Every structure is written in C-alpha cells, then in structure tokens.
Amino acid sequence: MKKLREFLDPPKVLVLGFLTIILIGTFLLTLPYATINGDGLSFLNALFTATSAACVNGLVVVDTGSTFSTFGILVILSLIQIGGLGFMTFATFFAVLLGKRISLKERLVLRESMNSSSIEGIVKLSKRIIFFTVLIEIIGAIILSFRFAADIPTGKAIFFGIFHSISNFNNAGFDLTGEFKSLTHYVDDSIMTLTVCALITLGGIGFIVLNELYEYRITRRVSLHTKVVLATSFVLTFGGTILILLLEFGNPKTLQTLSHDGKLLAALFQSVAPRSAGSSTLNMADLTQSSLFLIMFLMFIGASPGSAGGGIKTTTFATLLGAVWSQIKGKEDVVFFRQCIPFNTIYKALTVTVSGLFLAVVLTMLLTITENNQDFLMILFEAVSASSNVGLSMGLTPDLSPIGRILVIIAMFAGRVGPLTIAYAIATKQEANTFRYPKGKMMIG
Amino acid sequence: MKKLREFLDPPKVLVLGFLTIILIGTFLLTLPYATINGDGLSFLNALFTATSAACVNGLVVVDTGSTFSTFGILVILSLIQIGGLGFMTFATFFAVLLGKRISLKERLVLRESMNSSSIEGIVKLSKRIIFFTVLIEIIGAIILSFRFAADIPTGKAIFFGIFHSISNFNNAGFDLTGEFKSLTHYVDDSIMTLTVCALITLGGIGFIVLNELYEYRITRRVSLHTKVVLATSFVLTFGGTILILLLEFGNPKTLQTLSHDGKLLAALFQSVAPRSAGSSTLNMADLTQSSLFLIMFLMFIGASPGSAGGGIKTTTFATLLGAVWSQIKGKEDVVFFRQCIPFNTIYKALTVTVSGLFLAVVLTMLLTITENNQDFLMILFEAVSASSNVGLSMGLTPDLSPIGRILVIIAMFAGRVGPLTIAYAIATKQEANTFRYPKGKMMIG
Ligand SMILES: [K+]
Ligand SMILES: [K+]
C-alpha cells in the first residue's frame, strides 16, 4: 500500500506523465506519414515539437502548418489537449486538494466553490474542469471556423477553427498559418483578435476563477484569490496594451500603417498573448526594443494559478508588489481587499520568483555560449519565452544549434513541471522542527 | 526640538547631503579652470560627473584623465572621498545604530564589536571608520605609487597612486589613464591587479566585517553577519573568476593572447571589479556575451552592507538562496552556520531585491526609448551598472542622449540613496497595528 502511494506520489505522476506523452508524441512525429514530405521529423526535432506541444509552450523548430500532415497535426493537437488539460487539472489539485500542510487553509478556497474536499471532490473537480474546457473550446472553434471560412475552404476552415481554439485556450500558441507567421495575417481583424484574446484570457485565468465566476449567480461572492487575479490581469492587460500602443505608434514595421482600430487590436493582442499563449499578430522581430523588453516582463509574469499558462503567475507578482509596498510604507501586513496575506504566501511568492529568475538566467547564460553569434536580445527573449511557457520568438528557434535545442527542450520541461513540483514540495514536506537553531542577526541591503 | 529632530531625520540628511555635495561639485566642475581646455564642463556633463563621483558610481561622459585640470581632478577626488566615506558611515549607522524597531536586535551586532550603542558609540564608530579608510588608502597609495613610478614621472606617479587608491577603496571606479581605458594597460600586471582587487574588496566588504576581523585577535569570534559576508564574497569572487576564465579563454580580443598568469589576473580583476568598483583591465565591449551577462549578474549582487559599494548586497543574495533552498527542501527555517534567519530579514531581502530589479528594469525600459538605435545588450549593461552603482560600461555612456544622461543621473542618485532610505523606512516606521485584517487565502505559482 505504501509502495503504491509512493508510486502515485503526485510530482512523480506529473513528471512521468509528461515524459510518457512526450515520448509517445516524439515517436509518432518521427513516423513518415507525420509530415507532408513523407520523411517524418528527425528525432531531435520531433522531441522538440512534442515537448513544446505537451508543455503547451509553442516554440517551434519547424513550421507547423507547412510541415505536418493531417496525422501529424492531430498528434500535436492531442499533445496540446492532453498536456494542457492534464496540467490545468494537476495545477488545480496541487494548489487546492493536495498538500498536507497547506490543505487546511487552502482547501477552503475549493470548498467555497466545490462544497467538497474528498475523493468525490476530485472527481467533481475533474468533471468541472473538462466541462469548462470543452464548452469554451467549442464556442471558440465555432467563431473561428466562421472567420476562417471567409478566407479558405469550409472543411479546412473548420479544422483551422478547432485547432486554433484548442491551441489558444490551452495557451499553446501553435498555429497552422504557415511560414512561422502565426496570426500576423489577422493583425487588424477584430473577430480574430477578440476571439483569440478571449480564449487566451479564459484559458490563463485559472479554473478556480472560472468556477467562482460561473457560480456567482448562486453564491453572490468571490474569494480573495479571484479578486487579486482579476485585478492584476486587468491592470497587466490594459497597461500592456497602452504601453505597446505608445511604443509602437510610430513604428512603420508594426502599428504605423494600421487604422486606429487596427492599432488598438494589435496592441491588445500583443499585450494578451505573452501571458502566456505565444500567438502573435505582429512579427516579434519588427517590434521596438522597448516593446520587446516589456513583452519579456509580461511573459515572466504570465498567467494565473490553476491554468495551463506559464510564468510566475499574477498572484505571485501582486504579492511581491504588495510586500514591497507595505515594507516601504512601514506596514506590518500585506493587505489586499481588506484581507491580510499570510507570511507563508509571501514566502512562496519569493521562492517561485527566484526559481523562475534562476531558470531564465541559467538558460540565457547557456544559450549565449551555444548560440554565440546570435544577438543577445534574441537569446534573452527566447530564454524567457521558453522557461515561462510562452512560445513567442524573435525567430531564433529554427536557427538553434542542436545543443541549443536540447537546452530549450530541458527548459520547456523544467518550466512546466518545475514550479508545481516545487509547490508540492513546499506544501507537503514542511514539518515543524522539534529542534530549532537560535535566531541570527544579519544586515541586509 | 521636534522640528530639529524632523529636520535631522536621517533619510533627509542623506538625500540633502548628497544633493548639496553634488550641486557644489557641479558648480566647481563648470568653472573654466576645472578642465584642461579652460572651458569648464557643460552643466549637464558637470552634473553627470559630480553625481557619478559623489555616488561613487564611476560612469563617465567625458574621459577623466584627459579632460580635467589638476583642480578638476581634486574636485572629483574630494567628491569620491566625501561621498564614499559619508555613505559608508550612513550605511553602517542605518544598519546598526538607527531604527527603533530593529535596533534592539541589530544593534547587538555593533555592540559585539564596539561595546557601545549610544552617542559615544556613534563618535567611536565614525572615528573607527575614518581610521580604517585612511589606513587602507595610504597603504594602497604607496604600493600603487611605486608601481606607477615605473612608467611615469615620480610626481605624477604619486598623484596617480593616491587617486586610484581612493577611487578603488571607495568603489568609485574613476581613473586617470585616459581615453576611457581604465586600467587596461595593466591587464597582466600582478602588482596592479592584486593591489586594486584588495582595495576594492576591503572597501566593499563593509565596516562591520573589517572591524570584526581587526578585533578578532581580542574577541576570538566573528558574528553570523561576517561569516555570511565572507562566505558569499569568497564564492562569488572565485566562482566569477573561474567562469570568466572559461568563457574568455579562447577569445582573441581578451584572454587568449595573455600568459597563464595574465589570464588568471584578468579573470580575477573582471570578477572583483563588478562588485562594485567599476574599474576594468579589459575593454568590456570585447568580452563575450556570456561574460557580459555574468558580469551583469555580479553587478546586481554587488558589495556587502555598510560599505560604499552598491548592488543588492551579498547577505541579501545569500538570504534569497537560503530561503528558496529551505522552501524546496521543505524546511521551516533558513539556517546559516547553525543560526536561523528571522522572517524579518527574509522579508527585507525580498524588498531590497524587488526594488533593485524595479530600478534596473525601469531604467532599461526608458533607455531603450531614448537610445533607440543602440544595441540592447549595451543598454541593459549600462542600466544595471548605473542603478547598482558599478560604473562599468560597454561604451554607451559618452554617446548617451541628453535625456539619457538625465535618466542615468537620476538612476545613479536613486541607486545610491534609495536603498538606505527604504531600509530606514523599514527600520523606523513599522508599528504593530492594533487593528489587523483577517488572513486571506490565495494560490501562488
Ligand atoms: K504557451
Ligand atoms: K562604482
């Protein structure tokens, strides 16, 4: 019994689960009929593509639309759906149901919305997550299919609609439009922009929030978690839109030539997509350095907890800012919406942020060595994108050296399973020591 | 009485003190006889130079050695000495003597070494700091004068020896060698390298540590603070040396052409100087992107508390790593040398780091706008260097636009007085609230 429980240790299930679907995906993508040319992918490129898809990252070494056969595309779509749904479920479980030590506190978040916290709770939770996923993906697919049908044959349009709905709701950022162009063809298209932005936002906001909003008509209340997620997401989305609008307004390669509405739509898309879907309606390499730096910042923050999105998460960012603000103002507590944030939460925010910085810094460092003739900004952008599960690129990915590809594969995997594994370690392993060392004094700053 | 106390509020004294010496310095450097050409500096360049000198930063828009008259150089040297000594004293006071709330705990660090914590303590402390400063600067000046005398006339050599000893002990990074070349002429010179590295290290390690080591023969013990500073500095210095050695070994523009000893000396210098003196024996722009990224990392960490150096400080970095490590291992406490680090200290480390990141990120963002045709790596390097009080540059400083110069001036000032002002706010303003909000639950990561 103990052996079984050890075997089903959640981080192990997470890591082994992802490894398994990545390896199956890699195998399938090397098959001759996975690609249009009938050769299949090389092992390294297949591993890269499968890892990117299963981790819903979105970085690609080969162009998805022009390389893969329908079979290959279906393999990628399955990896995205399994990876995205699996991770979203895991992330919600980890944060809500699991964890001996925090469960007493944090489980309450779930209980508020699910009225349960046992095995039935898990089953009910999974069903609910699948329900939301399928519902939103179907609505997205219908709208996108109609939009694509204006440009391409109906059958292909439906296929495109389904693919891009699933890809964006899961924050995967894969596309079928060809030539690594993502959605640049639709830069000033309001239906495409608003639908995809809605899919990305709903997919990145986290299940807890979706569920609370869904049940609001009954419960008539939202938790602190939901308030902080909504407030932070709002500020980042619209703050990002305004800044990109200002920074790109006079850029002839990006916004300058667009209409007023087109400018707004393009700025909105480029603000939403870095957190952390990885689609784009502008060519990243055409943006100003200022916008690219801003986008890196947005990528690093990423989506919200309990979603398929990446980054350190909105609540982490809000907690950091709150902690600094209260320290500077000489307040003892970090207070959001008249509730005080416990030390444990601040401590976790610190750990998540430093780990995230560490992964991005180490990957940047290693890529500057392996890709030593590439531009630093391109490398930094790629590293932040890979480790934060975003999938935006200034165009470096297809040019990566073999060792660079392996490094990015490892970073995509670590950026996906690492944070949850750390969260689990924090949640479960902490024990009150019977023996404690005396407190030491040290100067800081 | 209360008005006088308010007027002497330490952050105000710090900010007004620095502003005053910067403005006096600016005035003196605009005088015709401050420069060799008899024109004096323009107001903006004088303000830049005076700010850089008083804040012991080291970024320069005009080459010090070939622009200024002896009078101008003496003005700069005075600004460095007043700024460096003043800040070191303030930083030690802030961390040790002042602060109602932390004083009970942290004052002990001082009491251990000074056996006092009252007004006499302050006087004794100031005397002791001046004693260390003068002693080390004289020894440094003598060694450097002898070294310079091998190349240049004796009188000039003594002047050079005094200037470079004061500049490097105060982590100011100004030099008189001409053409923005810093100490590149001495790249494989062991006397120059080792003397300057020793000056930088002793100036950056902080007064508390110097004093404890000085009194070790009597006390036979060192505090936790000193242990952590020494351990972290050791790891960063030699880790940095090894990494730079590896990264530059085959670079024909830097280490490749040097002898074995020369390689070691150059790697050591480029590892020590970013924390945070800002001298260099290699042209920064010639280094590999990997080394430059590593140097940015070292610049951001910087020196130790209670010194004239900048950055988030060694103890802050150690605390962050310790906090993450203990979280991942599921330990409740952060333990260094069998002493547990209080939550308050971890919280301060978080605040200092996030504030430091904020300053560097905002400056980078603004400089990408004002210097939009410059290379991103150069801009990022400049921003980290300016805000961490380092003074290393890939060569951007003299090419900065007027607005860019103003931004860097503000960042140098903020990077100097900001951290201490924040530290003071943390130390004094915190009050136990009689009313506290209830604890809220939130998911992180
Ligand atoms: K993504
Ligand atoms: K400096």
TrEMBL record, chains A, B:
Family annotation (Pfam families): TrkH
GO cellular component: plasma membrane
Compartment(s) of residence: Cell membrane
Broad class of the protein's primary localization: membrane
Keywords, sorted A to Z: Cell membrane, Ion transport, Membrane, Potassium, Potassium transport, Transmembrane, Transmembrane helix, Transport
TM region positions: 12-31, 43-62, 68-98, 129-150, 191-214, 226-247, 292-325, 346-370, 406-427
Single Gene Ontology MF annotation: potassium:chloride symporter activity
Topological category with respect to the lipid bilayer: Multi-pass membrane protein
Key word Membrane present: yes
PANTHER family to which the protein is assigned, alphabetical: KTR SYSTEM POTASSIUM UPTAKE PROTEIN B, TRK SYSTEM POTASSIUM UPTAKE PROTEIN TRKG-RELATED
Record protein name field: Trk family potassium uptake protein
